[in-house]
Fold these 2 entries.
Entry 1:
Amino acid sequence: MRRLTTFWLRYRRNRGAVAGALALAVILALALLGPILYPTDPFDMVGRPFSLPFDRFPLGTDVAGRDILAGILNGGRVSLLIGVLASLSATIIGVALGAVAGYYGGRIDDLLMRTTEFFLCIPSFVLAVVLVAIFQPSVVTVTVAIAVVSWPSVARLARGEFIAHRDREYVQGCRAIGMPDWEIILLQIMPNALPPIIVVSSLMVATAILTESGLSFLGLGDPNLVSWGYMIGVARTVLRTAWWMAAIPGVMILLTVLAINLVGEGLNDALNPRLRKR
Amino acid sequence: MRSTGILSLAMAALLAGVTAGSALAQPKKGGTLTYTYHPEPTALSTIATTAVPVALISTKIYESLLEYEGAGLTPRPGLAESWTVSPDNLTYTFKLRAGVKWHDGKPFTSEDVKFSIEQIALNYHSRGRTYFGNVEAIETPDAQTVVFRLKAPIPYLLRAFQPSETPMMPKHAFSEQEIAEKKVRQARIMQEPVGTGPFKLKEWRKGSHIILERNADYWKPGKPYLDQVVLRVMPDGAARAIAVEKGEVDLAPTSALPPAEMQRLSKLPHLVASEEGSEGLGPIMWLEVNLRDKPLSDVKVRQAISMAIDRDKLVDVIWYGNGKPARGPIVSGNPNHFDASLPKFEYNPQKAAQMLDEAGYPRGAGGVRFKLTQNFLPYGEEWVRQAEYIRQELGKIGIQVETQSLDMGGWLKRIYTDWDYHFTSNFTHNYSDPTIGVQRAFISSNIRKGASFSNSMDYRNPRLDELLLKAAGMQDGPERKKIWDEVQAILRNDLPVIFLIEIGYTHIWNKRVQGLITNGISMYTNWDSVWIQ
């Protein structure tokens, strides 16, 4: 309880982070409750295409006469879900590999880090496009593709943390009493190494949402689901006649990514106070 | 008899008036016509591939024996100045024009004709076998005479001599090795063309432009009017539209712009948007249905699906008004074979749901009767929008549809090689005769693994096969028309594919371009009488 309180006190010091957390809460609530409170199917042709916002529909209709508000609410679900799941999987993969590499060092480290570098040197968005194109677009393949291109940075970070910790006295102490390696890694070093990783992976949610939007924009999203990137992709061809159609989901992506970044920064301040004295 | 005589006189007078009106503006020599189309052609001959971008440009360079007039493609003299057909329709004799030269200065002779058909069209053109499969021999008694001897009548033979379908190729430009080793598609002439047409290649800068220049030795005196025809390569749809709007580009043929932009540009005063001039292609779109498994093998189910789709809405919303609801396998713009008495397909979702109830597919949990997977032709986003619309509409009558997106290679494999699909959007060209464009999709002998745009549905109807084969060997006339009427009635009822819309090819051009629309394949003709004001 006390730790939570100090965490909150530190977090609160960053005003932007508080605003970000609020915005994120609103966006989450919209995505979770929106489709229930506003149950229009986002793929239904409900009216005349190209109708203006605030006319017959709150945010107007898109090129195929579909309700844009319904798309925003349902799309938020998909974008956030993919963003969170992808960065969670990337974190787990990255931490696992980074921990093993950092803790054991030597050949295992070489092998894992060369592999990581292999992924790092390919532009991640291009790799994601290739993966999704090969395995056919669906929620699962898009999530996996984003996770696959995102884990290397986490792995590098986790490795650094584990190298820094593995020769500390408390770790040597654990070894001395005969604690098995997995216990040292999971129960001893991990809690100490986790704060910077949490910060990085929270920021990764934002990147994942952007990547998903980019894929959907290119037509590589799940064809059965609406996402914000998909909505921008649909509106792209009519940008000159109906700019708002792309602007509305665009603003939503902007707000979400901004909110997540602010929260990430706040987490950084709260979890690593000594790194960020301001 | 008398009254029809008067009528035709009146018609003739009217037509004369029309031509006189357009002839008032005197054609002007000189100038450049710039057009844009995406993607860039991969070669400059339809022998390499018949894809639209290739056909657009190569038809200015290569010619065939005949030229065509009007939407119905009435044959007119071209490289052949006259022709005769024997009474049994088994011998066609073409008299070639004297003094025609290839772009490299060598004379065009009957040997080139024989070569172009026997060695090139039959082996390499994707429809060569349909056109010339029944040719027994081609004889060349002298340099200006070609005689076709047929095994069986080919009713559409006189429509086969279009520049995109049967281009005349210079025999001397191919090495014996290229012919013997079947390397014609890799031959240099595919990139550096030598034709007889009004324009010849001046420059091709890949990724940027192709310039064709006037052929000064063209056999038609005084033609062509234009000095140059230029293709500008612009991959981005919005950029193409702006270029046309600003007058940098004179012409965007065969729906070369995104539909939303076409709609916007069609309202501008200095541009013309027209669907005329593609009647000879007849693009028709449908949902290709795999009939191998239940429930789609059940005709009631297919009729219900057909009834659940609002074709007017598809045309208006998804295709921005480009096209018409289809009424059967033959497009309504085909004056010789379309049965004009056919009604529109009915749109009635309530009745569709009821039909599914009656067919034994009651709604289950969540109102779902059964699940299907749909694919769509990966030609651009309108096709995605259409798939989304169809999924919604079928969902309402209790058919849960999942959309699967594939690239072109994956799509071709799944539909035509694996036959592993439920239904997919698709479109084909009718061409000038249904035997060329329609038969291939429905005749049971064309259920061939791996053959694209064949009968992938596994549709087998002995009566239809019989009719199609009968029509293939007949000359056009009331008898043949009757057969096609029955074919249309059978296919409308059986719905081996769900006919959706006749795609409209919209051509957009700047008003200073004159004389563009001349026949049913206007964009695939040689533009020798096009001029710039």
Note: Confidence is low (pLDDT under 50) at residues 1-23 of chain B.
Entry 2:
Amino acid sequence: MLSQDSLRSYEARCTQESPPACRRYCPFDLDGRSLMRLVAQGDIAAARTLLLRHLPLPHLLSQICDHPCEEACLRRDYGGSLAIRDMARFCLAYPVPEKRTLPLPPKRHAMAILGSGLTALTAAWDLAGKNYPVTLFAEGNVDDLLKSHPLWQSQDVRDALAKDLAKLLQKQIEVRPLAAKPDLAELSSAFDAILIDAYALGDRLTLPGASDIDQETLLWHDSICVAGWLSTSPTGHSYLLPSQAASQGRIAAQSMERLAQGLSLTAERKKDQAPLHTDPGKVALAARIEPSAATYSLEEAQAEAKRCLDCQCLRCVRACSYLQQYQGYPRLYARQIHNNATIVKGLHQANALINGCTLCGQCAELCPEHFSMADLCLAAREDMVAAKRMPARAHEFALEDMQNACENAVFLPDQDVSKPSWVFFPGCQLAAERPSQVLELYDILRTQLNGGPLPGVALAITCCGMPAHWAGQKALFSKHMERLRAHLEELGRPKLMTACASCLAAFTEALPDYPLCSVWEVLDTLDISALQSSAKARSDLPKTFSLHDPCTASHNPAWQKAVRSLIQKTGASFCEPEHSGTTTSCCGYGGLVACAQPDTADGLARQRIAELTEPALASCIICRDRFARLGKACWHILDLLLPKEGMSGECLGSGLSEHRTRRAKLRREVLARMGKEEGYPEEGIALAISPELLDDLERRHILRNDLTEAVAFAEAHQTYFLNSENGHRLGSFRPRNVTFWVEYSLDEHGFVLHAAWCHRMIVPGSGGRPANEVIDEQQALQKDAANVGGAQ
Amino acid sequence: MKQLWQDTRFQDISGHALRPGGLALTEYALRYCQKANLLPKQGYAADMGTGQGVSLALIHTIGLTAIGLDLSRTFAHQSRSLPSQGLRLIADVCKPPLAQGRFCLILFECVLSLLEDPGQALFWAHELLTPQGICVISDLVGSPQAHASCLGGARKRCDWQDLFQSHKLCVLHYEDRSKAVRELAAKLCWYGADLAQGACLPAVGYGLWICGRNNQLQTQGSA
Amino acid sequence: MTMAPNYAPDEGSWLCAHCKEPLQQLKVPVFYLGSAFDVLLPRCPKCGMTFVPKSLAEGKMLEVETLLEDK
């Protein structure tokens, strides 16, 4: 399984949990986004609580703070930053019933603070607030403090400071006069930690400068901290920056606590998080609303609060309905997948997450930090398979289809060239859906290439093994690829040209050193003027297409370029949807999601369809068939190059059962070219199935083959039930891991199917084996399992 | 609110063991201990949270004298074991009225997650055990679920381990028995128990620990 | 033990074509991934051929199969 470290590095890439810009730059970690949300909702009491939780000397700061948060606010360029400081002032002034706070238990460590500048007062506020006994050595009174800065002369500021001081003095704080020359040794023995305000005591003691002290701990020596220097501008001018001064006070207070308790000064202090990536997107300009009086009215405050962009990242989530389905974001999902924690009662979320990802990599493209759900989910699938915890049901149907493609595999060498330079690899899906176009294309390629410098085109009709890779079956995938490599070496190591982007990706993954390319790149270099003219003459094609790049071609610029070039050569015009090329969306088939979670897959297909404004054009037959099935007219690029009578974008694919038949037929045709005859399979029983029923059954992973096999078995062994009311027969057959049930009857033409269903549970007395045998076998298995025990 | 284990259908479905894994898991654990020579031929065993007492009969068959503790009088009345197979006490497993240092085996089967302070029960377990004594613990593993009763006490495997170790019990053997929870949930579903809490079950796993007192580390080796 | 659930055919009156016997609701253990469950299903009393109605296969069976399969 993923180690904790690699999980953390995965998680760290997703910045959705990072603080928004306002919070990131606030020394007091105030979440401006939450503040605005609460005000907009009208919950001023909660907004106030939030402020009091974060801000020291809240009334004073809401008057004088230099608001670094506003400098950082992303709304700055869209009408002006959110008025966070004014909003704070509004909330604090708003009449809200005072909440009674429970008294905290008094702490025993005595704290001393020398000076009464803003830094010192902030430290006093924090420490006294936690009920430490604080002794403040002040050099004057409030007025003296206010004299230190011209801006602080206003009455509002004086009133604010007075309010905060009144609150402060209610705590365990004692104010004593500051000595002319404080005796640090004496103070060190009397107090557990000391803070010296550098600005106030700069003339009484020899103090280190700001550059001499670690700004993260503010420790000078022993248990003495120093803080509160003025900031210096590049021209050497000293000035007081309230946010900085108060921030130093907070940091010093934290250090003093740790010093008193003997804890590490540096552990877990600064959180290192990647900044939250927020793309404001299309934001309407809206001017900042200033208070018409000293503070906002409620209406003004709410209007201003509503301007908040509510910074989120969620870039990947917005583009992918799979990520939206679980109402979270990748960081959360990474944790769930690793911890196998489920959120919703009874919903097996971790499994669903792992098997619901198409592995297309779009999220990694859209994410500024390249978080890849694909990497995470594929690794998780491989782990599950290795630990024998992947439910067979998830991918069995697709793997059986892969097996069928392999059983119908055929390799045709070039009749005229003993060591062909090329091998055309159409892919199992195109071969099963468009066998005649495959052969036509092969013949064109051969004709053209054999006259050139690199003659000889072989034909390899089989599956590339990608379903095994997607299913997390590493061993199966590599074994399959090794066999393919052997075949290819036998053919003389010709350059492989595929018509399927997934095949290309599979070969790139498993045989990175093998020469590969797409058939479109090759076609693009050939003379296709004959094809072009036939395409241009057509009137049945849409004026403009929306071009859909298959997800497995997203990192294949050569594929994308060649497809576009070919389309232009046929005279068709196209436009590109928002997510195209590197950021293209998956049709739902990727990662075997269409097999494991058909509803999720359909959601993804629909989301993609919504982006395709014109009739669609795809360079992958699976995408094309999926869109057509959901009512979106979609052509395949071969339909432009090698048009077929009656083919239009609205036509549905032939169906999964028909694929099996076509594969066998194509194999026979190719063998015939080699002069080999393969006998036709035994004429099975004739079973009439209405197209609607077959379509419905295929959706439930029941194929025609399964049904004819079941009927044949029942009839041969007389193992069927008879419905005396209508003469229907009901038989069952369990060839592998599923029991198929067929309800059928006999008419003058043969058998007619009325209904069919299936289940994976083993029911003795059904499926074609004697009940006792099955019961004995299963009970023996259970006994063995109980004896072995051990972890599963 | 009626607890899951008080529902008669749940009792039935779980084989009256009232926990995932049922009696088969107890049997497996005892056989494991026997094979590993962790149990003497004779001695006292305590079944903490004995419920309807199905484990008592089982303990009796391996030659130990069984004492079952449970606070529930209802379960005492519904007892599925004979008095000859084991003594039942209506007592609190956190304050067991038992002699210290006399027990070679203590069972906590899906009980610790129900207690407010499982540490107390473990403390006493350590006291009650003989120096060579064994504690068999099985319980829910996972993140505590907010709504359900017993599932609220589920803990992550590392947290359980910390809890045992902080009460001077070292883990000699651990097995993941999450399958038992899935099975119990499946059975609840199949047999029509529409118990809302049953739906939470798949969200947690189940673990089996064989623990000894810390002094055992030298003799048994760590798990 | 618990009352095993009882599932009759969804509709129709069925008999075993092989033995020409009407079916009876009889108890049979069903198995999946190492767990066993009891159920009453229509069975031929002579040869033991057993009927699984569509509603059961696509209902409770599917539910329980999924519960047992999950991680």
Note: The longest helix of chain A spans residues 242-261.
